[in-house]
Specification:
Spore Coat Polysaccharide Biosynthesis Protein SpsA, Chain A; 13 strands; binds uridine 5'-triphosphate; single chain; alpha/beta; 34% helix; 297 residues; two-stranded antiparallel sheet
Length: 297
């Protein structure tokens, strides 16, 4: 069996144009889900999955991301003066759960390029990749959360693996879509081909990449061989096609809900789902939804 992957890259440098005007001055990764920013959910998932070292790829206008994981002595002192010791400790603990580093992507040349910024950090090891604008619902029936599932598959097979979900046919144009052969007895596919954001009639399957990956370091050479593709960006899916041609690349079909926060409707859904579970908001939000329902009746 292969060991656990300990390093993760979290790309969070995208311009977030689908969420303008909000993203003109604030990163989408700092959007709140009730009382926590999106990026904190991603870091927590990584840490719960055995990740110890994290590199966040940021860009212009994303300083709030660094501040969120830094100490805040003024705020902590203020909370302690008010006797809010628990809150002060919560605030301090945010950045302490993993070793978090930052690197800037100076030009937004695409996800493939953002990943390339992690090459020196990763060195010659396998690594996890978690999109900074994607939350995986922890409410999984088997109790494994997001990247934990990929870690298990990686430990069994020792090959690069990407999480996929089934999507409605009309949604395929929003995602990277994979094609491959089922691996017997598991929710796994051996990947042969990936297509970035295909039109529904060109999509080989309805299996969409869900924002979580584990790669062997050979992916970096594959990225280097890619020219700008769809939308003028260095596409990670192009590099994954090259990787699949030279070594095994698998896809794990998982059931967990994926929230693409860069998409407004997904963000609203995510906020509502979590607000309906949060003890501080659950009752009020339920009452609010009941009222809205009654108004419409
Ligand atoms: P998206 O495809 O959501 O692109 O990126 P985007 O630019 O952030 O948003 P839109 O499409 O303009 O609304 C997927 C992930 O890749 C990161 C994003 O931050 C997000 O986590 N990314 C994308 C980068 O880090 N750099 C890039 O150049 C592009």
């Amino acid at each position: 069996m292969t060991g656990q992957v300990k390093k993760a890259i979290i790309p969070a440098a995208g311009l977030g144009t689908r969420f303008l005007p909000m993203t003109k001055s604030s990163p989408k990764e700092m959007l709140p889900i009730v009382d926590k920013p999106v990026i904190q959910f991603v870091i927590e998932e990584a840490v719960e999955s055995g990740i110890e070292d994290i590199l966040i790829v940021t860009g212009r206008g994303k300083r709030a991301l660094e501040d969120h994981f830094d100490y805040a002595p003024g705020l902590e002192a203020h909370l302690r003066r008010q006797g809010k010791v628990e809150q002060a400790e919560q605030v301090r603990a945010i950045g302490a759960r993993a070793n978090i580093l930052f690197v800037r992507q100076k030009e937004q040349l695409g996800l493939g390029d953002a990943v390339r910024h992690g090459r020196r950090f990763v060195g010659d090891e396998p690594f996890a990749l978690l999109l900074g604008d994607t939350i995986i619902d922890p409410g999984h029936p088997q109790g494994l959360h997001g990247l934990q599932e990929l870690q298990q598959v990686y430990q069994r097979h020792g090959a690069s693996v990407v999480a996929v979900r089934r999507v409605d046919a009309q949604m395929v144009a929003r995602y990277g879509i994979v094609d491959g052969r089922p691996v017997e007895g598991e929710h796994l596919y051996s990947l042969e081909r990936l297509v970035e954001k295909p039109e529904p009639e060109e999509a080989p399957t309805d299996l969409a990449i869900a924002g979580r990956y584990i790669f062997t370091p050979q992916i970096f050479d594959c990225i280097d061989r890619c020219a700008a593709g769809k939308d003028g960006e260095i596409q990670l899916t192009d590099a994954m096609n090259l990787l699949a041609a030279q070594q095994p690349l698998q896809a794990l079909l998982w059931q967990a809900r994926r929230y693409d926060i860069g998409n407004k409707a997904d963000y609203v859904r995510c906020f509502l789902d979590f607000a309906l579970r949060h003890p501080d908001t659950r009752e009020a939000v339920r009452a609010c939804l009941r009222d809205m329902d009654a108004d419409q009746a």
